[in-house]
Predict the structure.
Amino acid sequence: QGKLEEAEPLYTETLETRRELFGNKHPDTLDSINNMAVLLKDQGKLEEAEPLYKEALEGNCELLGNQHPNTLKAINNMAVLLHDQGKLEEAEPLYKE
């Protein structure tokens, strides 16, 4: 429905709760980190989204390995963000993974 501003506190609450309950490297927490990054990107807050995308990518690689679907999604999301920021040289190797 496009109510991105209304969604942000709900995403924040979910992420904080999952960090407290499960820790930072749990699949559910990593999913919430990625979701928060997507929301911020959709709001045009690319600089705020970047560290969350990085955290999700690093966590998924460590926990699930490089070929897991969640990791591949995180790689793609990071590449798209970097592309949108005009960081094409940084995005290119991620697109090739």
